[in-house]
Every structure is written in C-alpha cells, then in structure tokens.
Protein 1
Amino acid sequence: MSRRRYSSAIAGFTLIEALVALAIIAAVLSSIGAVIATTVKGTRSIDQRLALAGGAETLLAALPARDLLKPGRQSGELAGHRWRIDVAPMNLPDSSGASQARRFVPLAVNMRMQAPGGPAIQITTVRLVPRAAE
C-alpha cells in the first residue's frame, strides 16, 4: 500500500505548478494579442493611405488640360474625403529677361486631401501652361 501512495503522490501537478503554467500561458497570449492589435492598426493605416493616394491620383488626373488650367482654388468631396486644390503661378527668379522668351509659364498645383478619420495627404506638383498672348 505504501507503494501505491508514493506513486499517486508523484503523479500529476501541484496547484502551484498549474498556476505558474497558466500565468505563462496568459502572458504569451497577451503578447500575441498585442502583436495582432498592432498589425490591425497598421493595416488600417495603410488602407487609409492607399485610399487617399488613389483619390489624389483621380483628382490630379481630372485637372483641366494645360491650356485650360487657370490659377485659383477648387474644393470638394470625393468618396467621403475632403479635398482642396490651389493653383498659383510660381515665382521664379528672373534671369536677365529670359522670362519674356519662355513659351510656358509654371503653375504650382498644391492638392490636399483629408480622410473622414483625420489622416491627410498633400501633393505638390508643377504644371507648365502656355504663356498667354500679350
């Protein structure tokens, strides 16, 4: 009988061993949860940036042709994203009257688009427009 009592005493885990194992499992699972939450947040941020970039491409492609593009401000909304486009002449340094001989005038096109959640994208480009007949 003493042999049976000895074998049952060493079989299984003690309460402390089981609690330590559960604490380790809880720590590992919380670490995995934190990694998953960070990944989801990053993925959501990338999705928002891609949506903004796609909307910005659409707007810039829809700008008037270079001979019709005029300085000014346009604004609106596209797929829930607010946008604003400012077109202004660029102030370039005059290099000994060369500006009079130029066939094209550079216009700065500054586009800003903001998502409903707050992230925004800003793109600045230059468009060359034919010089107006003087």
Note: The mean pLDDT is 84.
Protein 2
Amino acid sequence: MTSVERDTRIVPPTTAGEREMLEAWLDFHRDTLAMKCAGLDDSQLRTASAPPSDLSLLGLVRHMAEVERGWFRHVMAGEERRRIFGTREDPERALHVTATDTWEEAHTAWRGEIARAREISAGLGLDDLGAGSHHSGETFNLRWIYTHMIEEYARHNGHADLLRERIDGATGD
C-alpha cells in the first residue's frame, strides 16, 4: 500500500496551555482532512465509499465547511444562518455531491469558513458564550465549540481514511 501525500501537518504541542492545545488539535484535524484529499482529481474526490452510501471526500469537505459556518458564524458570532451547499429542504445537501460539484468550489468555501472561524475566535475567551442560537436553544461557550469541532473532524477523518484507501489504496494517519 502507498502512503497519503507527504505529511506536512504540525503535531500539537504536548505541554501547551488549554487554548493553544485546543486550537492546535483543531488545526491538526483540519489539515488531516486536507491531506486525505491531496493529489486527487474531482472524479476521485466524488467517489462514494460503498453503496448505498454516497459519502465522498468532496462531500466531507463541503459538510465541514457547513459545520465551521454553523458553529462559528451562527452560534458563536450570531450571524444569520445561511447554508453554503445545503437547503432548508435538504440541510445535508453538502454531503450529496453531483457531477457538477467541484473541489475548487468546496475547498475555497471550506478554507474561507476556517479563516472566518479563526477571526471570530481570536477576540474571544474560552468561557465566552456564543451570541447566536443553536437549533436546540442551548448556549455554548468557545471551549465547547472547539472540543466539538475536534470531535467532528476526528470522526469524519476516520471516514476519510476509508474513502482514500478505497480510491487509491493510500493509507496513513
């Protein structure tokens, strides 16, 4: 088996403070998803895992753009909730890619949402509560959102491992 593209991720520090540790692990997992997609063309990125599932790497990147937007823009910053790829009728549309969906579009949206998430978080403390609302009605602090985002990426990076291996046999952390 081959290995996924050269690993350029920054390993999180082992003795950092809480915020630095949370941000480093979140960035590590963001970079892991990018690494799993590296070197593939749009067709490969659209490749579904195993029928009947239509889960793909492209779908995961689109989904994570929506997740970044939802938690940081909507819940933390209180910005109006507008989906990038989903609709009211199909909120999970991001996961269901078509032949016209492209890596360029998905990657640009995802990186844009990561940049905006960093901007929003930069001015906040870990205990600061979000200015927006979650569909559950609960309030969340930045610490909870960071922890949840690490969990969300870690779970989907497990999916990405399997997807990438199915596409071209590449494996790796």
Note: The chain has a mean pLDDT of 92.
